[in-house]
Amino acid sequence: MRLILLGAPGAGKGTQAVNLSKRLNIPHISTGDIFRANEGTELGRKVKQIIDQGMLVPDDLTVSIVKDRLKKDDCKNGFLLDGFPRTIPQAVQLDEVLREMGAELDAVINLNVPDEVIVRRMAGRRVCKGCGMSYHIVSNPPKSEGLCDVCGEELKIRDDDKEQTVLERLKAYYEKTEPLVEYYEKKGLLLHFDGTKDITETTEEIMDKLLKE
Ligand code: ADP
Ligand code: AMP
């Protein structure tokens, strides 16, 4: 399956992506994770400045990174895009890339979560320094405090999860990303989900709907 996960920052895209990627056996491609994994490079340092201000990385750079990733062998049978596209020009360029590959999207999963819940989620988010796995100190804690369940590394607070940056990111979401809901609705690809439910309940709802499509 070729899928996109859409939703505000903190809606739970990364959390659902980990579950769905395992269940559907498709790679999880997160542009945010790719940018963070390059923090040691010149490009990574430039991008981090943008990210830490709560702004979006330029479209051309982001699209070229995704284009290279989609050419890899493991994407032949599908992929799950998390946090991409985030603007209409990115979505238009993704359509073009998929056309060149002779591929089509199967569905766009939209996670709906109100702003006040988003702000609470980002305030308690902790991510693994090693594998990037996302936790929450109250709603989704690790088994051992401060340590990742998957790889045992230490957890940390993301630099862009400061309250002021979160508000900037929400602004960027409403200005640039929310129009994608209509874009994909018009294409008949959008599936809506209530992202405030329990993590596993949401995964089950998504799986049920995808398998019925
Ligand atoms: P995104 O990838 O959309 O930015 P994350 O998957 O990192 O969001 O989730 C944001 C925060 O909310 C994390 O702390 C995560 O553990 C928590 N979270 C995700 N889904 C849920 C949920 N359904 N209920 C409660 N907390 C959740
Ligand atoms: P995320 O991990 O999805 O929350 O992304 C973290 C940050 O990376 C975002 O706030 C943006 O600054 C940047 N980013 C991730 N994906 C994109 C994208 N598709 N377009 C532009 N910027 C992005």
What does this structure look like?
Helices cover 48% and strands 15% of the residues. It is of the alpha/beta class and 213 residues long. Helix 1 crosses helix 9 (199-212), helix 4 runs parallel beside helix 5 and helix 6 packs across helix 7. Strand 5 (125-128) and strand 6 (134-136) form a beta hairpin. The protein has helices at residues 13-24, 31-37, 42-52, 59-70, 88-101, 115-123, 163-177, 179-186, 199-212, and strands at residues 2-7, 28-30, 79-82, 107-112, 125-128, 134-136, 155-156, 190-194. The chain starts with a strand and ends with a helix. It has one domain: P-loop containing nucleotide triphosphate hydrolases (Rossmann fold), CATH 3.40.50. The radius of gyration is 16 Å and the shape is globular. The chain binds adenosine-5'-diphosphate and adenosine monophosphate (AMP). The site of adenosine monophosphate has 18 residues, from helix 2 and helix 3.
Structural class: alpha/beta
Largest sheet descriptor: 5 strands, parallel
The CATH superfamily is known as: P-loop containing nucleotide triphosphate hydrolases
| Overall outline | globular
Strand order of the largest sheet: 2-3-1-4-8
CATH hierarchy: architecture? 3-Layer(aba) Sandwich
CATH top level label: Alpha Beta
Number of strands: 8
Q: Per DSSP, what share of the residues sits in E-state strands of 2 or more residues? A: 15-25%
Uncertain stretches? none
Q: Count the helices. How many?
A: 9
Determine the N-to-C terminus distance: 11 Å
Per CATH, what is the topology?
Rossmann fold
Query: What pattern of helices and strands is seen along the backbone?
Result: EHEHHHEHEHEEEHHEH
Name the average pLDDT. Answer: 95
Rg to the nearest angstrom?
16 Å
Helix content: 40-55%
Number of domain modules: 1
